Amino acid sequence: MRSQAPSLVGRDPQLALLERAMADARRGSGGVVFLVGEAGVGKSRLAAEAVGGALRGGMPVLRGRSSTTGPAVPFRPLTEALMSLFRGGEPMDDLVLGPYRPVLGRLIPEWDTGERESSSMVILGEAVLRLLIAAGRGRGMLLLLEDLHDADPETLGVLEYLVDNLAYTPVLLLATVRTDFSDALDLAQSARRRGAATLMDLHPLSRPQVREMICAQLGADGPEEVPAPVLDRLWEDSAGSPYLVEELLQSMIGAGTLVQGAEGWRAVGDLRRDVSSTLARGILRRVDRLGTESLTLLSAAAVLGRRFPLTVLQRMTGVDDRALLSHLHAGVAARLVVPDEPAPDWYSFRHSLTVEALFTQMTPGRRADLARRAATAVEELHPGLGGDWCALAAGLRSAAGDRLEAGRLFADAGGRALVAGALGSAVTMLSQAESLLADADDPQTRAQVLENLLPALAEAGDFARAFDLVDDLHALGGAGLSPVRLATLHTRLAKVAHTAGRWSDGNRQIVRAREILSAAPDEAAQAAIDVTAAYLALDTPGADRTQHAEKLARSAADTAERHALPVVACQARELLATVARERDPQESRGMLEQALTTAERHRLPLQRMYAGTRMAGNAWLDEGDTAPLLAAREEALRLGSVHIMHTVDGILVLDAVLRGDHDTARTAAAECLSVVRRLRLAPAVRYVLMAQAVLAAHRADRTAMEATLAAFTEWDGAGSQEEPLCLGLARTFCALLEEDAGLARAELGTLLALEADNPSTYHLSGTHGLVLLLDVLAGDADRVRHEEIGATAVARMRWNRQFVLLADAVLLGREGAPARATAAAEAALAVSEPYPLAQHLGLRLVADAAHRDGWGDPVGWLRRAEHYFHERDVTAVTGACRSALRRLGAPVHQHRSGTTGIPEELRAQGVTVREFEVFRLLAERLGNKDIADRLFISPRTAEKHIASLITKTGATNRADLCARSAALRST
What we know:
The chain contains 48 helices and ten strands. The protein is mainly alpha-helical. The strands form three sheets. The protein has a five-stranded parallel β-sheet with strand order 2-3-4-1-5, sandwiched between helices. Strands 8-10-9 form a three-stranded antiparallel β-sheet. Strands 6-7 form a two-stranded antiparallel ribbon. The longest helix is centred in the middle third of the chain and has 19 residues, at about 545-565.
């Protein structure tokens, strides 16, 4: 099986080893390399690359191949290889071969004297070796022998001699062998054990490598242009075999299921409808060699799927144990099936193509009959259909044409998958159930399917599909469903609307659910309505939305306790924790721990994920810790919750902005936004747009900020939970970076009014931090207000705490407590360490007050801030810092090349670039003249720089300064 791939994929280490081996051969140190792997894994393709490298290096190449076609010909691969010597145009008669030339007549017709005197394999092997050395003419020689698993015994006899005698010759023997049992494989493994050869095992390609190979085959510009369904199908069907990847890809193109258009390659129709006829015939020939009974058994196994249990296979076919194992062992030997370790009593087909090839020789009626017998066997052997047996039975009933029973089984299996947190499987099976039951007269089962399918689609981010099911819901409304079940369906749809950020649609569904339930009140159903209504209330603009949401959630929690409703209890406590976070972090944590305990006790992985994500969000707010968020994202990814995964992504984007990692934030925001916009996941879209606006604001780019905020408004930004963050983190900071304190305070005034009319549960907007600092600096806030705000839980969140501490420092300075003010400022610096822009902006804001009241290090702070904002091209703040330094009587240094190399502590002390150069040399305790000679300055200038350094750094004398320099150099 030869590859036609335009480039070699996934074999760089092996190719590098072969290149080294060829280089060694050219230097007179030859050897043997066996390329071992299953059919189609790329042995010949790798060998061809090696041949190309040899030829480019001026190294002659001889090639021969074994074959199973035609009559057996002794020495065929050797003869084929050696005869190519006589087609190259170079004279061979001048080769010094002595008495070995006649011996070679057995392999080379031109030298056949007609004498048939046999000689030993040892002599023939030595003759071949001498010919290879001589024909190399000092350039080395590559002998490639392919498909040795089909080689005749005579060839292997000569080859065994060569393997043991090539080490000190300029000849490299490269041979390809399949992993199937053969004498050639034995020879290769024996040679490796005694150190006479290198055995290179070629493994199948990984999924990323398969994608790279597809990309190369299609001529695509990048792996992202490979359609995901194409990659999924080729990865599954090829099992990483390059040959199968190529064959299947060409089959798709030939069948018209993969087409190229103006926008690149795209999948059209059913990618599984075609199996390459060549592949199918080859597989069926291998099955036919096993006999009719094996074909029957493997056909039955194919109906069960790529993996199949022996107990079910035996029940449906009726074969005894001995016959069953005999046929399976034959299938293993033929490399058609393998034991499915570590699952006991299970086997699997090596390639899904084998299953499809077996299907091609079965009539539809035969397949349906086998599927029905298989479903019956599963149901008899596994009453209750626990675990994965329900899904297997459902698929078999569907294949048998039993639509109603298949739909009911898929509904059951999908519901179990949803409870277990397997969202992808739940969506797949529930969708199959919904399709199979569409025309069935079974409204109860259809309602059960919708109850589970709606939340599964919401978690998976498929909102369009979820809302398309509204028509089905309306149809069921007149099908005799109970009020409780119908109200539950409307409640589930309301929850979908909440997840999608469509609170108006969600509230309408809540109203409808309450109307329906009023005809037959039910406390359990009422609790589910209340908790969903609570989440919608929290997102619906209104002055009392927090109180209303909390009231509904408490009612739902109480009812959930009485009626043992664990899901409702978890949802209610998660919302109560969000509301409580503002007033009492311990209460919030307690609520989430209760929800987590309930979720774990009742095995509710989705609710556990939600509780864990909210706990991670609290940790981020409290201390800026992102590790729990990353763990929550991994859990959401594992469960398939697109909604939570992208919610966490948005928080991480904002975190990167606040930490000053703008490049990471920009890239992550663009990637996340492209997905959540396509999914129409409005809350995530708003959050990421808000973070992008904050990014632009923190770069003092008002134009970009305003454009992003306009896009934010288009996504129902007005009145949303994210709107206050746009004012406090974006607009206010942009104004401050423009040195417009009046505009900044006006933006914060708008923020406070907005929070009064429309309170939010996001707490980083500045209402409990930045507002206080600016008011204190302006003289509009005193100690009473500081204590009032500082006592709140929100003020203790790390982002807010840095501003509260700075405000405290300013007030302490005014109150005549400079030492305490300095300590408060140092505490603020420690808290703000992860947030460099906020830290330097805060230092710039308080520097004048610190100088006036005699506390802290205002000159050092301004120098640090000036350097920080100069490096980021924030000109307004840079200029303001320089002006402030002049007002304080401190020298203002010009920015010269090398400034960034000065440690921040020395830069804050005003050390210049030239002074730092002198400072570094002091570690060697050089005299003024030596320093001057090194720096091409005068000794007098060096002395002046040293005197200035002693003053700026506070060193006691020159020796102290030298010690400090040495300490810096050692770090």
